[in-house]
Structure formats: structure tokens, C-alpha cells
Amino acid sequence: MAAFAAVMTGSSAAAIATVQLVGESAEAILSDVFCCSGQGPPACETGRILLGHIIDGADVIDQVTVGCEGPHAFTIHCHGNPLIVERIMKLLQGRGVELLDAESLLAKMVSEEQPDDSIAVEAKLVMTRVKTLEGARIIGAQMAGGLSQTVRRWSRESDSMSLAEIADQARQILRDSRTARRIVEGCKVALVGPPNTGKSTLLNALAGCEKAIVTDIEGTTRDWVCAEILIPPLAATVIDTAGFGADAVAAGDDGIEQAAQARSVEIVRRADLVVLVLDLSRPEAQVDERLLEALADKRILTVLNKCDLPAHLDLATLPAGLGEPVRISAKQAIGIDDLIHALHWTLGVADFDPRTPVAFTTRQHAFLKRLAFAETRLDVPAILAEILRGPIQT
Ligand SMILES: Nc1nc2c(ncn2[C@@H]2O[C@H](COP(=O)(O)OP(=O)(O)OP(=O)(O)O)[C@@H](O)[C@H]2O)c(=O)[nH]1
Ligand SMILES: [Mg+2]
After folding, report:
1. What is the rounded distance in angstroms from the CA atom of residue 106 to the CA atom of residue 334?
2. Given 32, 277, 314, 370, which residue has the most CB atoms within 10 angstroms?
3. For 321, which DSSP code?
4. Residues 251 and 333 grouped into a single domain
5. Average pLDDT of 270-299?
């Protein structure tokens, strides 16, 4: 007769904390450590909320309410002082309860609720980490429709569909999953460009506060600075980098500049999108070989900043492949909405339908890849069964 418990709320001090207690022996353990206000032992009927005290023999630990969520599931709402929470957890452990972290307990509970629907179980777990409401819509849609529905359809129709058809559709889902991941998990946007073009000013304009130092001295930003910004449907981590290019290195008098540039290259490498910030008011060519090399194969959005000043940059000097530039003034907050709009389109999230079937765990990705590259249709039924009912990933 097992019982499991986890602290479901955060680890810092708060007004209340919630401890989840589940398992076949949960009720017996509760009746041992919980003294209900009023007469007699607690009547733990499902749906009731009980007021009382957590006790250790004659020692009263805390006044709590207990929610009876099911015959084997209880939530104890205690005061949120971490010392009290720890004491309650130790008490439960002393009564034979296995302590888990919140996510593992949640995984245990949802997989017991729906043992034959791995996609729905994974969706419930991922839902707790989704970064935006739009992301929650995507994950919610994968349970009944979306990926779940597509895999069930493949299972029904696999005899009449060719292997190539299933593989094509699996590849499309993998492509759409990359776009959905940006909405569900958040994305990284790097602000890159030569010194003094206004990258830090743009970061501050997007963040709505002074995150980065702005001066008219070239090379102001050395180490990167970042801000979390919500631009629905995206939650973006915007990273301001050190001014880039051969000129910046030449201007630097020590190894710090080299180190700053190496860090910028690494940030660019990891970014989902690079916003290339150029200064519209300066006539000289601003994208040198070094910068172009760092941008190779990246998704780029070009921004012409300082549009509040007379324009001197000859757009014909811009290398090909930088896309349609957006004119802004980060300092005067002109064109920021246009920039955000362009950012959504460049990342492919502007018109993303949340009902699109997508994979949202590494496990699902792995099986879809196997489908996309399956060599014989004999493999298909087993792969589909694994996606729908295989052991879930927490
Ligand atoms: N007129 C005008 N000036 C701007 C604008 N954006 C930035 N500046 C000015 O340009 C100078 C450089 O701005 P920063 O934001 O520090 O530029 P940066 O690209 O971060 O510079 P580094 O960190 O040196 O690479 C500052 O004097 C800013 O006030 C703009 O839109 N219009
Ligand atoms: Mg800067």
C-alpha cells in the first residue's frame, strides 16, 4: 500500500503552500496526521474540504485545510513558511510516504488517470511549463485533435495510405513543430550589429525599462544583457550583444573585445532569430565579412535604426539575403510595432493555427522522425502504437 507526496507550490516563502498526498494508503496516513476541527475522525468523502490541524502525536504543527479530491488523493493547504512545509513533509515521510518532486507526482497522477493516452498525459505535463496563452492553446489542441487525432487517423487508414504519404505528413508535422516550439517554450532573439547602431537602446525600448547601458561611445556593451518580453503569441528572450565586426575588434585595445565578440558569435549561433541592427544615419557600409560569416544560415530580420535622423545609408551597399528591412527609431520609439509584426512573420508564428498537429516532446519527435524515414510499412503500426500508448516522457 503505497503513498506519495510532493510540495506542489514554489520553494520560497508564501502565504500558503500545497502538499499533494496520493496513493492507496493516503487516507489512512491522513487520518493519523490530520485532526479535523469538530467531533470525530475526518470524513474524507470526495469533494469535501476539511479544516483542522496537522499533528505529530500531541504536537500541533499547523492549521490546514484538506481538499478530498478522490478516494486516494488529498491536497493539504498549509501555511507557506518553508520550515512548516518541511516539517509536514518529514512527518509524512516518517509515516512511510515516498516524497517526490511536483512534476514526478503530477506525471504519476495523470498517467494513472489516462494510462492509454500518452499524448494527452504529456500535454497535461507540458501545460505547466508553457510560456504563453497561445502556447497553451496549441498544447490543449493536441489532446483531442491535433497530433492525437492525426496519429489515430494514420492507425485507422494505414492500410489505404502509402508509406510515402505518411512520411510526408510526418515531415510536415516536424516542420510545424519547430514553429510551435517557439510559441510554447519561448524563443531567443539576438540583437546584433556594428558598434553604436542602437542595439542597447532597442533592447530597452522592447523591455520597457533601462536594461542595458546606452552611451554614444562605441563598444559600450561588452557582455551580453537580456530581457524577457511578451509579444503574443511569443515570449521572447531578447539578447543585446557587443558591437560586431572587424572595426570593433580593431578599436578594442585588449583581449576583452575579442572575448566579447566570441560571446556574440555564440549567442547568434543559439538564437532562433537574429535582428541585425544598422544605423540608417551613417553612410558607410556596415556589414563586413566577419559579421556576414556569423550570420550565415541564420534567420535574419534587418532593422534600420535612427530613422528620426536624416538617412545617409546607401541601401544598395547591403548584402543580398538580409530580407526587407524595417525602419525604426529605438530612441523615439518609432516603428516598434512594425518591428514586432515583422518579427512574428519572420519566425512564422503570425498566422499559426493552434489546431495544427505538432509534436511537443522529445519522445514524440523521435517517433515522428522514425515515421518520416521508415523504410518499410511493416514498421508503421508499432511506431504509431508507441506514439499513442508508449511510456511517457516527464
Ligand atoms: N537619434 C537617435 N539616436 C539613437 C537611436 N538609437 C540609439 N541612438 C543613440 O546611439 C548611441 C548608441 O546607442 P547604443 O544603444 O548604446 O548603441 P549600441 O549598438 O548598443 O552600441 P555598442 O554597445 O557600443 O555596440 C546612443 O547615443 C544612443 O542614444 C535612435 O533611434 N535615434
Ligand atoms: Mg550596446
Report:
1. 46
2. 277
3. T
4. yes
5. 91
Domain match, 142 and 258 both: no
Comparing CA positions, the residue from 179, 208, 296, 322 lying closest to residue 313 is 322
What is the tens place of the pLDDT at every residue in 327-338?
999 999 999 999
Q: What is the CATH number of the domain that holds 76?
A: 3.30.1360.120
- 167 and 129: one domain? yes
Please check whether residues 327 and 203 belong to one and the same domain: yes
Q: What percent of the chain has pLDDT over 90?
A: 64
**Cβ atoms < 10 Å from Cβ of 333:** 14
Note the ligand closest to the C-alpha atom of 277.
1
Nine-digit cell string for 351:
498566422
Residues pairing with 165 in the sheet: none
Query: Are both 261 and 322 inside the same structural domain?
Result: yes
Give yes or no for residue 52 having a pLDDT over 60: yes
What is the pTM (predicted TM-score) of this model?
0.81
Residue 213 Cα, ligand 1 centroid: separation in angstroms?
10
Q: Which atom of ligand 1 is nearest to the CA of 197?
A: 19
Question: How many Å lie between the centroid of ligand 2 and the Cα of residue 351?
Answer: 32
Nearest C-alpha to atom 8 of ligand 1 is from which residue? 198
For ligand 1, atom 7, which residue shows the shortest CA distance? Answer: 198
Note whether 338 and 191 are same-domain residues. Answer: yes
Q: Smallest Cα–Cα separation from 315: which of 283, 346, 288, 277? A: 283
Say which range, 149-153, 261-265, 378-382, has the weakest mean pLDDT. 261-265
Contacting residues for 12 by C-beta, under 8 A, at least 6 apart: 82
Same domain, 326 and 233: yes
CATH number for the domain spanning 206: value is: 3.40.50.300
Kindly give the distance from the C-alpha atom of residue 350 to the centroid of ligand 2, in angstroms, as a whole number: 29
Ligand 1 atom with minimal separation from the 242 CA: 25
Atom of ligand 1 nearest to the CA of 214: 16
Residue 373 belongs to domain spanning: 111-184+354-389
Give buried/exposed letters for 148-179 (b at 16+ CB in 10 A, else e): bbbbeebeeebeebebeebbebbeebbebbeb
Identify whether the C-beta of residue 181 lies closer than 8 Å to the C-beta of residue 235.
Answer: no
With a 6 A CB cut-off, is 204 part of the ligand 1 pocket?
no
Same domain, 174 and 192: no
